[in-house]
User: Fold these one by one.
Assistant:
Number 1:
Amino acid sequence: MSSLQPVRGTHDLLPDDSRRHRFVEETAFSVVKRYGYGEIVTPIFEFTEVFSRTLGETSDVVTKEMYTFADRSGDSITLRPEGTAGVARAFISGGLAQSLPLKLFYRGPMFRHERPQKGRLRQFHQVGVELLGVEGPQADVEVVSMAYRLLCALGFGDKVQLEINTLGDADSRAAYRAALVSYLDPFRNALSEDSRARLDKNPMRVLDSKDENDKRIVANAPLIQDCLTPAAKEFFTQVTDGLAALGVPFVVSPKLVRGLDYYCHTAFEFTTTALGAQGTVLAGGRYDGLVGQMGGPATPGIGWAAGVERLSMLVETAPEPERPVAVIPMGDAMAALVLADRLRTAGLAVELGFSGNMKKRMARANKANARFAIILGEDEAARGAATLRDLDSGAQEEIALAALEERLLRS
Ligand code: ATP
Ligand code: MG
């Protein structure tokens, strides 16, 4: 460890990177605002229990990935690994059950102690939404299609695939659990250690194993589809029919389960082949049991979260920063500073070279992608004027200093 290195799995966002990040975040917020979502900002740390009780004792996140520490008062604190648990906690502690349905958007850093690789960091960022208080499948349709519309707005709707599945209702899950255990139990000793533990606590999680041998065993396991109650089946049909009606392309993926324990009914992921192994860019599902399980009033919920780093990698062009105007003094440097200040106050972006000859300053203006250069020559200054050069066409004109704002704001 060197104290001057960033911590493994963390990175600095330099201006070009953060421009892409902001573009992703702002696009996400502007899309979900059209559906009536408002932003919630929860703390980036919570009492550890908020996560351990909700994400499930067998989830990878809780067993291996949380940044947990005792703070100076001896409380066990965890840096949030995901957003839903904190939002559910805020819902309960803030007594928000009176204001249902609730549509919330969040963004910000998340922390997981994983093996860093491309698209997998220890501090990463998510944008996400939670819709609380709506039971019916129309909510699932709207929330999933909203994710699709976001990916389209970012410019790569055609590069992702929506995989969707149902995890059924409580009765379907109980039946499935039994079927799965009786299928998996004879393979108990062949399963990985993690999967053996899950077999007892939460057998559906075995389906999510990344171990190659587990995958072979799971290949022939019974499917949740065979255990759905008629009501759960009908719910899923309404979700898929709804997506079809909205023209959202999807494939049903019968083995898709989500890594966290609180999901039911709809589970979905948007994946891409463009990012190598870390192909899931956005994932979510319905979590009707979560709020009740945390000790709040039973409240249905559905939501998704997307990795901003992974989305940023798919963004081809983020909007360029505003092109500045370069102010280039030939003599009086203070006059240039005063003019730059005046133009910035009027709302223009101004690039001011602090030193160097005319050639150097022009080179810097071009590097900053300046639209115009204002050259403050001494003779013109005496007449209260300057030279305005259009850096795209090369055309040049003399212009009164007093007329600059008007001229520049118009072009
Ligand atoms: P994975 O299967 O890639 O580990 P996950 O199921 O753990 O993903 P979720 O908890 O569903 O991921 O988080 C939602 C999204 O957040 C993921 O689809 C991904 O885009 C992003 N994400 C999750 N973990 C990381 C990470 N360590 N670094 C960067 N992005 C991440
Ligand atoms: Mg993970």
Number 2:
Amino acid sequence: MNVSPKIWLDGELVDESEAKVSVFDHGLLYGDGIFEGVRFYNGRVFRLEEHVERLFLSARAILLKMPWTEQEVCDVVCDTIRANGLTDGYVRLVVTRGSGGLGLNPYLCEKPSMFCIAASIQLYPEEYYENGLELITCSTRRPSHATLSPQVKSLNYLNNVMAKIECVKAGVMEGLMLNEAGTVSECTGDTVFIVKNGVIITPKISDGALDGITRSVIFDLCEKLDINIIEDTLTRYDVYTADEVFLTGTAAEVIPVVKVDDRPIGDGVPGGVYKELLAGFHKETATTGMQI
Ligand code: PMP
């Protein structure tokens, strides 16, 4: 039996075929809105409060007044997962500015709209977690803090989509995005880390990296495992000459990189620091999180 997924939309759980937003929604017309991607494992939502907090920070940054409390949004996520009978998967939580006129003015929109989708996910095929990914450097740059803040997880992902197209055309699954200064910010949908002489380095938030939730899990794990980790500006040279490179993201989890712009990283195979962190990450996802 094919059961239709239940989507939470503005206060109701509806069938997928009923989950529709207006063509006048500014989320669609202008990318005026924000989102989060959240994972759940074994009946527990991983780092839910942190994701909801980041959603509210994105809302504040774009002057979108949330008519819900953080607790209500957490409940929406859990209710949606429960309604779909899932124990492991991925949630997409989206808040749009709502339906308005054809002009840009967001104050003419009636009220924000929220929807929540719970589904299963596998971002990268399993073999890449064992053998590693290849990256290219994308020519599309990460927007600067002076344009659209790279901190806001907005519905304007066209920049990342353009970078992703470069990856697909080059036959790889991810790519490095540089900022306007030409230093590394992150990947199209993942945070980047290098390992050099036993120290993990990840780009600073001010270099255009998203303040990733999985990024913060890596910082917590490093403290537990007594591994040195710092934020610093990284050039492509730093990446090419690293001992190890790995990526993190809610959907990607923790995945190794073995080649960048045709240069093998380290020995060209996933490294020991990655393996140690991966084990720690799996332990964390299996044992922590909000009960659904
Ligand atoms: N950078 C970008 C551009 C992303 O879209 C994501 C995915 N949310 C990440 C980094 C990773 O962040 P997180 O660990 O919070 O999923």
